[in-house]
């Protein structure tokens, strides 16, 4: 169903910019404002800094009367070039999604500091948690940049950043499942190399071969489903013996629930708040829950490690 909605959204993505009213307005604006040297003198510094061209400005200027025409004709708000119409703030293309991406980034920074205070560096998965934080911060940084200004490079980096979080979560689950098992280090190395090589290959094809939106959506759904299913089974197995595991179960359930915002799609409220922005807002507090679980899990594994050392 998610894939169907994604394909449907892609098909209907350009209704606004294909309309005759928008086309006529755009052609007039380009002819009047984007010929010769006049286009440079009319650009504000912040717009130039974010690489908003004269053509982009004409598209933005012509979008709003077209939106009003669609609304007055009772057709409803339509998308332009695959995106809903947003009011720009200081040149920022999607202000709400930008702000909420920053909130997610800050959440990881704050919680990793708490993790460092409460967990000893010698504890199992101490480094793993830091790798997880770095990957998530990198992903949310590119999400912020992408929502500030949507161009091909920032879009690809946003997609790859999100995919890196999903892949590392799968790797984290596999390594946690095999912790303290025979040959766990060899399995960890194997899974790490396999997932790492696949990510490098996918990044290369995305940058230099084709940005395949459908395939990117499918692999994110597939690995995300493996991740949620794997952690869910692990939680069901251990939640009675380890009460702190309920935090992991709650996190997994909330991640699955908040993903519904990505399935929903509606014109932005007040021209700034759409389903995607609400999804980013809903995921911001989840970092607190996940790191609290990681702190308790590291304490548990530290106890296990001491018991094994005593037996040895």
User: How many beta-strand runs?
Assistant: 0
Integer average pLDDT:
88
C-alpha geometry: elongated
Structural class: mainly alpha
Q: Radius of gyration in whole Å, from Cα? A: 23 Å
What kind of sheet is the major sheet? none
Number of separate helices: 14
CATH architecture of the largest domain: Up-down Bundle
What helical percentage do the residues reach?
over 70%
Output the helix-strand order: HHHHHHHHHHHHHH
The CATH class of the largest domain is Mainly Alpha
What's the structural domain tally?
2
Q: What is the CATH topology assignment of the largest domain? A: Rhopdopsin 7-helix transmembrane proteins
State the end-to-end CA separation: 52 Å
* Percentage of β-strand residues: under 5%
Q: Uncertain runs with pLDDT below 50, 5 residues or more?
A: 1-13
Keywords: Golgi apparatus, GPI-anchor biosynthesis, Membrane, Signal, Transmembrane, Transmembrane helix
Transmembrane segments: 96-113, 125-144, 156-175, 187-205, 217-236, 248-271, 277-295
Main location: membrane
Family: Belongs to the PGAP3 family.
């Amino acid at each position: 169903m998610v894939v169907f909605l994604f394909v449907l959204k892609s098909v209907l993505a350009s209704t606004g910019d294909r309309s005759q009213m928008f086309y006529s307005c755009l052609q007039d604006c380009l002819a009047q404002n984007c010929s010769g040297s006049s286009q440079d003198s009319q650009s504000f510094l912040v717009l130039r800094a974010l690489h908003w061209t004269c053509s982009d400005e004409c598209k933005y200027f012509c979008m709003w009367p077209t939106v009003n025409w669609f609304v007055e004709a009772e057709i409803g708000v339509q998308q332009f070039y695959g995106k809903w119409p947003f009011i720009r703030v200081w040149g920022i293309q999607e202000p709400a999604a930008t702000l909420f991406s920053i909130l997610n980034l800050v959440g990881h920074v704050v919680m990793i500091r708490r993790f460092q205070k409460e967990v000893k560096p010698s504890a199992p998965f101490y480094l793993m948690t830091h790798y997880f934080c770095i990957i998530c911060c990198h992903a949310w940084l590119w999400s912020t940049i992408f929502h500030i200004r949507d161009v091909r490079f920032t879009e690809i980096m946003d997609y790859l950043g999100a995919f890196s979080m999903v892949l590392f979560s799968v790797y984290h689950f596999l390594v946690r499942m095999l912790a303290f098992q025979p040959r766990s280090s060899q399995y960890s190395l194997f899974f790490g190399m396999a997932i790492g090589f696949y990510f490098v290959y996918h990044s290369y094809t995305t940058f230099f071969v084709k940005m395949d939106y459908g395939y990117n959506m499918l692999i994110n759904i597939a690995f995300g489903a493996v991740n949620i299913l794997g952690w869910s089974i692990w939680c069901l197995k251990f939640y009675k013996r380890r009460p702190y595991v309920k935090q992991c179960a709650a996190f997994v359930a909330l991640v699955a629930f908040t993903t519904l915002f990505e399935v929903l799609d509606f014109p932005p409220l007040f021209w700034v708040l759409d389903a995607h922005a609400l999804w980013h807002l809903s995921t911001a507090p989840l970092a607190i829950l996940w790191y609290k679980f990681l702190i308790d899990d590291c304490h548990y594994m530290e106890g296990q490690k001491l018991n094994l050392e005593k037996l040895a």
